[in-house]
Amino acid sequence: MVNLYFHTNDPSKRKAVNWLTAHGIEVKQRNLEKQPLTKQEVRQLLALSINGTDDLISLRSRDTKALELDKKVVTIDELTAAIQVAPRILKNPVIFDRTKLVTGFDKEKMGIFIPQPQRRLELSRLLAKFAPNPQPKGQVKFG
After folding, report:
1. Beta strand ranges found along 22-110 (DSSP E)
2. Which CATH number is 2-129 given?
3. What residue ranges do the domains of the chain occupy?
4. Which of 67, 95, 109, 113 is surrounded by the fewest CB atoms within 10 Å?
5. 83 close to 89: Cβ distance less than 8 angstroms
6. Model pTM score
7. Looking at per-residue confidence, does 33 or 123 come out higher?
8. Whether residue 37 has pLDDT greater than 90
Protein backbone atom coordinates (compact mmCIF):
# COMPACT_ATOMS: atom_id res chain seq x y z
CA MET A 1 0.00 0.00 0.00
CA VAL A 2 1.11 3.53 -0.85
CA ASN A 3 0.04 6.76 0.87
CA LEU A 4 -0.77 9.75 -1.28
CA TYR A 5 -1.06 13.14 0.38
CA PHE A 6 -2.44 16.02 -1.65
CA HIS A 7 -3.72 19.54 -1.20
CA THR A 8 -5.25 20.11 -4.64
CA ASN A 9 -6.88 17.71 -7.06
CA ASP A 10 -4.58 18.74 -9.90
CA PRO A 11 -3.52 16.69 -12.96
CA SER A 12 -0.37 15.39 -11.21
CA LYS A 13 -2.42 13.97 -8.37
CA ARG A 14 -4.94 12.35 -10.71
CA LYS A 15 -2.19 10.90 -12.95
CA ALA A 16 -0.41 9.45 -9.93
CA VAL A 17 -3.58 7.79 -8.62
CA ASN A 18 -4.41 6.39 -12.07
CA TRP A 19 -0.86 5.11 -12.58
CA LEU A 20 -0.68 3.42 -9.18
CA THR A 21 -4.07 1.74 -9.50
CA ALA A 22 -3.27 0.63 -13.07
CA HIS A 23 -0.21 -1.14 -11.65
CA GLY A 24 -2.25 -2.87 -8.96
CA ILE A 25 -0.93 -0.75 -6.10
CA GLU A 26 -3.41 0.11 -3.35
CA VAL A 27 -3.54 3.86 -2.72
CA LYS A 28 -4.61 5.51 0.52
CA GLN A 29 -5.41 9.16 -0.26
CA ARG A 30 -5.49 12.05 2.18
CA ASN A 31 -6.47 15.64 1.53
CA LEU A 32 -4.17 17.78 3.68
CA GLU A 33 -6.53 20.74 3.50
CA LYS A 34 -9.19 18.72 5.30
CA GLN A 35 -6.90 16.54 7.42
CA PRO A 36 -3.66 18.41 8.27
CA LEU A 37 -0.46 16.58 9.11
CA THR A 38 0.66 16.10 12.68
CA LYS A 39 4.12 17.17 13.78
CA GLN A 40 5.21 13.52 13.80
CA GLU A 41 3.89 12.95 10.25
CA VAL A 42 5.79 15.96 8.92
CA ARG A 43 8.96 14.63 10.49
CA GLN A 44 8.30 11.20 8.98
CA LEU A 45 8.11 12.78 5.52
CA LEU A 46 11.34 14.66 6.12
CA ALA A 47 13.03 11.45 7.26
CA LEU A 48 11.91 9.62 4.09
CA SER A 49 13.03 12.36 1.71
CA ILE A 50 16.51 11.91 0.29
CA ASN A 51 17.10 15.63 -0.21
CA GLY A 52 15.20 16.88 2.85
CA THR A 53 13.14 20.00 2.31
CA ASP A 54 14.15 20.24 -1.37
CA ASP A 55 12.09 17.11 -2.06
CA LEU A 56 9.04 18.36 -0.20
CA ILE A 57 8.74 22.15 -0.35
CA SER A 58 7.43 23.86 -3.47
CA LEU A 59 9.53 26.99 -3.78
CA ARG A 60 7.28 28.34 -6.56
CA SER A 61 4.15 28.13 -4.43
CA ARG A 62 2.49 31.44 -3.54
CA ASP A 63 1.97 30.07 -0.04
CA THR A 64 5.69 29.36 0.35
CA LYS A 65 6.60 32.84 -0.89
CA ALA A 66 4.00 34.44 1.39
CA LEU A 67 5.56 32.77 4.47
CA GLU A 68 8.92 34.38 3.70
CA LEU A 69 10.82 31.55 5.38
CA ASP A 70 14.57 31.92 5.10
CA LYS A 71 15.68 28.47 3.99
CA LYS A 72 19.10 28.98 5.52
CA VAL A 73 17.91 29.71 9.07
CA VAL A 74 14.46 28.12 9.41
CA THR A 75 14.29 25.45 12.12
CA ILE A 76 12.60 22.07 11.76
CA ASP A 77 9.97 23.15 14.29
CA GLU A 78 9.22 26.34 12.33
CA LEU A 79 8.99 24.41 9.06
CA THR A 80 6.79 21.74 10.65
CA ALA A 81 4.41 24.39 12.00
CA ALA A 82 4.32 26.11 8.59
CA ILE A 83 3.43 22.85 6.82
CA GLN A 84 0.68 22.15 9.34
CA VAL A 85 -0.86 25.59 8.85
CA ALA A 86 -0.24 25.91 5.10
CA PRO A 87 -0.01 22.44 3.47
CA ARG A 88 0.10 24.08 0.03
CA ILE A 89 3.79 24.75 0.58
CA LEU A 90 4.32 21.04 -0.06
CA LYS A 91 4.80 19.71 -3.56
CA ASN A 92 1.69 17.96 -4.83
CA PRO A 93 1.17 15.05 -4.45
CA VAL A 94 3.45 13.48 -1.86
CA ILE A 95 3.55 9.71 -2.41
CA PHE A 96 5.25 7.37 0.02
CA ASP A 97 5.35 3.96 1.64
CA ARG A 98 7.39 2.74 4.61
CA THR A 99 10.77 3.39 2.97
CA LYS A 100 10.36 5.48 -0.20
CA LEU A 101 9.02 8.93 -1.08
CA VAL A 102 8.25 10.65 -4.39
CA THR A 103 6.72 14.09 -4.96
CA GLY A 104 4.78 15.10 -8.03
CA PHE A 105 4.11 12.67 -10.85
CA ASP A 106 7.02 11.19 -12.78
CA LYS A 107 6.52 7.76 -14.37
CA GLU A 108 10.18 6.89 -14.02
CA LYS A 109 10.24 7.66 -10.30
CA MET A 110 6.90 5.96 -9.65
CA GLY A 111 8.41 2.59 -10.56
CA ILE A 112 10.02 2.36 -7.13
CA PHE A 113 6.60 1.44 -5.72
CA ILE A 114 6.23 -1.62 -7.96
CA PRO A 115 7.37 -4.75 -6.07
CA GLN A 116 10.75 -6.04 -7.28
CA PRO A 117 9.46 -9.41 -8.61
CA GLN A 118 6.88 -7.57 -10.71
CA ARG A 119 9.55 -5.13 -12.01
CA ARG A 120 11.76 -8.06 -13.01
CA LEU A 121 8.87 -9.71 -14.85
CA GLU A 122 8.03 -6.49 -16.69
CA LEU A 123 11.70 -6.00 -17.60
CA SER A 124 12.08 -9.55 -18.93
CA ARG A 125 8.93 -9.11 -21.04
CA LEU A 126 10.26 -5.84 -22.41
CA LEU A 127 13.67 -7.34 -23.21
CA ALA A 128 12.03 -10.34 -24.90
CA LYS A 129 10.46 -7.96 -27.42
CA PHE A 130 13.91 -6.81 -28.52
CA ALA A 131 15.66 -10.19 -28.49
CA PRO A 132 16.10 -11.94 -31.85
CA ASN A 133 13.78 -14.87 -32.33
CA PRO A 134 16.09 -17.96 -32.29
CA GLN A 135 15.28 -20.78 -34.68
CA PRO A 136 14.97 -24.30 -33.26
CA LYS A 137 17.98 -26.51 -34.09
CA GLY A 138 17.68 -28.50 -37.25
CA GLN A 139 15.22 -26.15 -38.90
CA VAL A 140 16.01 -23.67 -41.59
CA LYS A 141 13.96 -20.58 -42.19
CA PHE A 142 13.29 -19.84 -45.84
CA GLY A 143 12.36 -16.60 -47.18
Report:
1. 27-31, 94-96, 101-103
2. 3.40.30.10
3. 2-129
4. 109
5. yes
6. 0.79
7. 33
8. yes
